[in-house]
Structure to design on (399 residues):
């Protein structure tokens, strides 16, 4: 593992976070025997795990290994919060769910899975998103929180809620072939905002559907997150406080970035700033209108007569899964590289005249909004460009 030079910070372990339960029964002694023989862990560590309550944000790619390993390890109580349903595309990496769970709420599928591992585990499910309305209460009610969210707003909400409530937070991210893990323990080391002060724009990094993610990477990063939680609860080892673990799956390399508290960073005093970011990233939030990109919803599109030219900027494999009848295909990469001439070439290949009313769509509306923004700079006068709000996802569920 490579150490990246940076200011040194004291190595700390704020644990153990909880007092142990009084005793383990015979079945627990047998079940956790490989833990009980660990030096420095032993019966006392297992009792602490059994007494601990953990909040897991997200039952997806990172939440799946986190939940599996924490349940198997003997955590006493787990709360799972997620508002999504299981989709077929989730099964490549979200190993807590099965084919028969497609269409089921993720919290329900995940709860059933961890109960298969430990029928005595106390599981609470919340079919919702972490929000400024529920974050502080949820954080205050748990000993440690693990954030496996897939968007910047929720990550910063978790950080701010942790800082306000003093709750340790284990944080992980994945993107394509790389992952990161860190632990934020208020009062014992730097927080997320000391490392990354500002909340990035919601669409500044493609999501998993657009950018892709190596499925097994979730297991690597999620297992590291679960390990951090166990170390905190039991007060063993050295958590990633003031350290960012980075893993590149393609190169097979780990590196560690050390970072310190920023003395000039304002303390978090409320959730006002992050509440605005959460509103912007919530389902149904505008994807392009705030940036001056005109949008049309699927109902409005269906009512247009004559119908506009419809351009799909997704990849080939996405169109094989589903496509809007009559749409033309022009990947976003071509628009980024060639601009308006790419559209002219598309119509020429389709033996059509360039239209003066064009609606661009992708899967969710993010890439199409970018395409409209790029093309609007060079489109001829009189050409109207719009992005399909919600993309093919919204189009496919319209009545």
């Amino acid at each position: 593992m490579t150490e990246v030079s940076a200011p040194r910070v004291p190595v700390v372990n704020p644990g153990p976070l909880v007092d142990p339960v009084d005793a383990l029964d015979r079945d627990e002694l047998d079940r956790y025997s490989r833990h009980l023989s660990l030096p420095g862990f032993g019966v006392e560590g297992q009792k602490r795990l059994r007494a601990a309550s953990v909040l897991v944000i997200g039952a997806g790619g990172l939440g799946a290994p986190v939940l599996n390993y924490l349940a198997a390890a003997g955590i006493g109580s787990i709360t799972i919060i997620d508002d999504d349903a299981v989709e077929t595309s989730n099964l490549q990496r979200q190993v807590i769910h099965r084919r028969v769970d497609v269409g089921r709420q993720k919290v329900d599928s995940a709860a059933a899975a961890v109960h298969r591992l430990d029928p005595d585990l106390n599981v609470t499910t919340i079919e919702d998103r972490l929000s400024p309305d529920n974050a502080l209460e949820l954080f205050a009610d748990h000993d440690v929180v693990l954030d496996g969210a897939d968007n910047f707003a929720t990550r910063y909400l978790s950080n701010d809620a942790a800082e306000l409530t003093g709750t340790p937070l284990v944080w992980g991210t994945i993107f394509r072939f790389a992952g990161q893990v860190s632990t934020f323990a208020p009062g014992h080391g730097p927080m997320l905002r000391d490392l990354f002060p500002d909340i990035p724009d919601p669409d500044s990094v493609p999501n998993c559907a657009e950018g892709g993610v190596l499925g097994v990477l979730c297991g690597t990063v999620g297992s590291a997150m679960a390990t951090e939680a166990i170390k905190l609860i039991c007060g063993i080892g050295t958590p990633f406080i003031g350290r960012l673990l980075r893993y590149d799956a393609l190169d097979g390399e780990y590196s560690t970035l050390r970072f310190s508290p920023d003395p000039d960073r304002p303390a978090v005093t409320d959730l006002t700033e992050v509440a605005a970011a959460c509103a912007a990233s919530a389902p149904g939030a505008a994807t392009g209108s705030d940036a001056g990109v005109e949008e049309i919803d699927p109902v409005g599109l269906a009512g247009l007569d004559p119908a506009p030219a419809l351009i799909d900027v997704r990849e080939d494999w996405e169109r094989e899964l589903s496509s809007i009848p009559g749409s033309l295909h022009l990947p976003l990469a071509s628009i980024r590289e060639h601009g308006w001439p790419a559209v002219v070439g598309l119509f020429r290949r389709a033996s059509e005249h360039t239209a003066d009313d064009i609606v661009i769509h992708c899967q969710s509306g993010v890439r199409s909004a970018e395409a409209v923004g790029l093309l609007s700079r060079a489109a001829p006068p009189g050409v109207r460009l719009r992005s399909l709000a919600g993309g093919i996802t919204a189009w496919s569920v319209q009545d």
Notes: The mean pLDDT is 89.
